[in-house]
Every structure is written in C-alpha cells, then in structure tokens.
Amino acid sequence: MENCCSNFNEIDLENDGTCPLCKNKGKKVKLITLKSLLKAHALETLNAKDTHYFCTTEDCEIVYFDVNNKKYFVSDIKVGVHQKDGSVNTPICYCFDWTKEKIKQYVEKESTTNPIEHIRENIRENRCGCEVNNPQGSCCLGNVTKFINQIS
Question: Which H or E run contains 130?
C-alpha cells in the first residue's frame, strides 16, 4: 500500500523572505553579516547553507531569520540595531560611529563634520565595512539621509 504522505518531503515549506513574526518582507543579508554580529550562543545555531533575511520593522524583535524560519532576536545581536533601538547612542553608521546623537548635533549646530560627506569620503577611500559592521549588511547612507530629513 502506497503512503499518501510519501511526497511530504517534496513540498516546499521554505520562507519566501517574509518575517515569521511581523509578516513584513525582509531584506536578504549575506552570511558574513550574521557571522560577524551574532553572539556566540546564536552563532552556534546558524545554518550557513540557508538564505538569511534582515527584518527592518521597528517594533519586531526579530533581526534575522532564514528560509526555514529560524529566528535571531535583538538579544542575539552584539550591537544595537538602528532600526529597532531608539537610543541616541545607537549608531546609524556603524563603520564610522555616526550615532543618532552625533547626527542630531550636526543638524542642530553644524558643529561637527557633515556625516554624509564624511561617510562618502571614507567610502571613496574603501574604508567601510558595512557587511561586517552594519546589522542590515549594507551601506548606511540611506539610513543617515532619512534620519537627517526626519529631524530637520
């Protein structure tokens, strides 16, 4: 007698990039980002063969998830995540330590270097390490620009 559920393993149960908690679309992130930013206890559970995503939703506790819905939470990450942490000391630019407070000081007083110009200069000099420093695994310029526009 043939097993009616014999094709169960053939059914695709993988996640399409939708956060299992908030149901918003995640952004693909490279493995090097997770390897750099997960705390040891979380890194030990990482499946390096799976595709991983970054959840940008502010009030969602999940930072990363994979195609099999393995979840990594804010508490599993070595640094504060700009999109999920309202602290003024949380970086928006992780490579050059542009925190919300430093950017706010620039906008209010223009007493510091222009953050966008500073970051661009360092990008030109190939100094950024977004894949290993920034939890979203990509350049922060969009986030910095958006923050400046919000507080201006």
Answer: helix 130-133
